[in-house]
Fold Ger(X)C family spore germination protein.
Amino acid sequence: MKKRKLISLILLCTIALTGCWDKIEIDERSFVLSLGVDKAPEEAGSPNKYLLTFVNPDTAKAEEGKVLDFVTYDTVAASYNAGVANLLQRFSKVHSYDHTKVLILGEELLKNADLVKDILDAFGRGHQFNSSMLVYMTTGKAADIFKIRPKMRSLLAYYITGIADNEKLVARIGSSTFLEFTKQLADNNGDAVIPDLSPSADGLTTQYLGIMKDYKHTGHLNEIETVAYKWLNGKAKGGVIEISNNTCSYPFTYFTFKRRINLDKVEKGKIYLTYNLETEGSMEEYTIASSLMDEEKLKEFEKKLENIIEMDCKDLIKKMQEEYAVDLLGVREYLYKYHTKLYKSIEKDFEEFFQRDVVINVKADVKIRRIGKSQ
């Protein structure tokens, strides 16, 4: 009797189990690890708008179970889905985007707001895409980035994500997910920053930020401005600030960086804000036979570091207000969240108000917590 009950229970359990009725074998899939989008070459009468580049691991060159090389395929089309359809006419495998890590946009594409809006909409609506994939721009063609072969043998997508992971140690490294990038565009009416990825002597490097205004690329922040942007937006995690004199450079390595915005006053139609920046870290390089145990010496270095942070940030604020005329400093977000009534009164003319009637002060507070081993 017990055996019959047990058998009946097992049979009932098997009924509840689901089967894989539409499976696709792994060797029938083509995994797209990276995507590149450029503006298509203009040809008379051609409807094509995009040059799409797909990067897949080259499984034919697998070594000891590892795939270290990749192959690229490209097509031109009027839309993303039309491009995929064109590509599948040459492919015997189903495209899979479960492991797509990187999306790279060419500079010429980013100069056309309509093309930018359309292609970002395609990636945003497409259920197959992961919103955590990294987004970069390049000053040349995205397709050219995929010609790079890093000295450290690796699939290019994982090489790029590895560089992005170092952002927690080096503030000038750029990193932005597709979700973060598109959210910034939506929150700022088409204004955003996008990390730049450029070829270097031994691979790729990222140390600049592109400026997007009204969904168009309008300029670049240099290395110093990129770091200041991260300080002012509370995005810096770690990095190095150098104090230089005529002969030597003394680096300060920070591990945390906090930003807090305060509304000081509203006076005569102007809004006065203060960005309070706090950081702490270590100075583990100095001059041999000299000591950093002197408290006055450390305070002197802290003051110099505060001056560097404040000056770099003020220079960027001036550039944002006067040259780019775009708020990428979090002013709109801060006022909307914490002073809604005030924001509503200037919302319609916010861009002009930001240029003319927002006064931003920067106050830095630096603490040197460690000085390395004593000699």
